[in-house]
Amino acid sequence: MARKLVLITGASSGIGEAMAREFARKGWDLALVARREDRLAALAEEMKAQNGVDSLVIAADLAKPGEPERIVSEIKKAGRQVDGLVNNAGAGQPGYFTETDWDDQERFLQLMVTAYLHLIHLVLPGMEERGFGRIINVSSVSALLPIATGHTRFSGTIYPGAKGLLIKVSQSIKAEMHGKNVHATAVCPGYTWSEFHDVNGARQSISNLPSYWMLKAEDVATAAYDAVERNVACRVPGAWYKFMVGLMRVLPDPVGEWIIANQSKRAMKKAQAQQAEA
Ligand SMILES: NC(=O)c1ccc[n+]([C@@H]2O[C@H](COP(=O)([O-])OP(=O)(O)OC[C@H]3O[C@@H](n4cnc5c(N)ncnc54)[C@H](OP(=O)(O)O)[C@@H]3O)[C@@H](O)[C@H]2O)c1
Predict the structure, then answer these.
(1) Using a 6 Å cutoff on CB, does residue 91 contact ligand 1?
(2) For the CA atoms of the chain, what is the radius of gyration?
(3) Is 221:18 a contact under the CB 8 Å cutoff?
(4) Would you say the CB of residue 68 lies under 6 angstroms from ligand 1?
(5) Which of 63, 123, 126, 172 is the most buried (most CB within 10 A)?
(6) Is the CB of 92 under 6 A from ligand 1?
(7) Which of 215, 195, 190 is nearest to 36 (CA)?
């Protein structure tokens, strides 16, 4: 019997790469997508040597509208079907709303929302028909916490809302696929070691956070795999972030907003002072 295949976007680093390693360990073949083809090819080779799994390497820029269709058609051309989908590719859109061109906001929405939904729309009918599917959408704990301007300044004004949409879509798909063995999960990590904060320029302020705020990409991937197998629609990895989300649910909104705004202001001030000293 052919091994199952999972399509993973943003597999060239961070959480996506960790997802590829997790699925390969579990015996899945991989379709690896990102712009940096050399990194994907090296990962494919490593996964073949370590786990004996096969990979398709598909270089694509998911900020371009036609890419989801091309990716799925390349997989079909290779004679494979998509049994799993990890929607993960992404980057922040630094700058507050009024400072950011509309073209950049549209590009951000294409990469962080439309491409995710388009890929689900392309692969879900096949999953439903075959009676098997696993979909992981990489959301963010920022979708579940009050807004921190220290975060939106680097990741973008739309970022928490875009990630919130992924939680609701995962919940809807889980409900619509009830009893069909097609599972959908939104994994909601907090700050995670990856290239994300180098790309969006937040590395300095992130480096001031206590170590228990930082997650490892491998732990996010393990939590996501476990959650999608159990058909949990929303999973927050890590004890600290579970505590934060739980706390914010019971606190009155203004108190939660005050705590997060103050923490965010302190981190930004410290980072600015360090930058001035350097
Ligand atoms: N790190 C965190 O603290 C954190 C927290 C919560 C949620 N997240 C989410 O986790 C996901 C993965 O981020 P990460 O932390 O692993 O960051 P990362 O190490 O920077 O990885 C981002 C991945 O997305 C790919 N990517 C970026 N733009 C792309 C494009 N236009 N087309 C195709 N691929 C693209 C990158 O590959 P190429 O550059 O090779 O294209 C890379 O593989 C993102 O959706 C992010 O929002 C991250």
Answers:
(1) yes
(2) 19
(3) yes
(4) no
(5) 123
(6) no
(7) 195
Q: For residue 203, how far is its CA from the centre of ligand 1 (angstroms)?
A: 15
Active-site residues: which are they? 159
Looking at the predicted structure, is the pLDDT value of residue 274 above 90? no
What atom of ligand 1 comes closest to residue 62's alpha carbon?
Answer: 32
Q: Contact at 8 Å (CB) between 80 and 57?
A: no
Task: Choose one of 19, 137, 138 to mutate for the ligand 1 pocket test, by most ligand atoms within 8 angstroms of C-beta.
Answer: 138
Domain definitions of the chain by residue range: 5-277
Tokens representing residue 276 in the block: 């001035």
- Residues 76-94 have pLDDT tens digits of 999 999 999 999 999 999 9
What ligand 1 atom has the least distance to the C-alpha of 189?
6
Half-sphere exposure of 130 (CA within 13 A, CB side): 13
Q: Which CATH number fits domain 5-277: 3.30.505.50, 3.40.50.150, 3.30.1330.40, 3.40.50.720?
A: 3.40.50.720
Banded model confidence at residue 108, pLDDT cuts 50, 70, 90? very high
Q: How far is the CA of 170 from the centre of ligand 1 (A)?
A: 19
Write down the mean pLDDT value for the chain: 95
- State the DSSP string of 57-125: EEE--TTSTTHHHHHHHHHHHTT---SEEEE-------S-GGGS-HHHHHHHHIIIIIHHHHHHHHHHH
**How many angstroms separate the Cα of 200 from the Cα of each of 88, 127, 148, 206?**
16, 35, 16, 11
Q: Tell which residue, 174, 215, 190, has the closest CA to residue 18.
A: 215
Asked whether 154 lines ligand 1 (CB < 6 A), one says: no
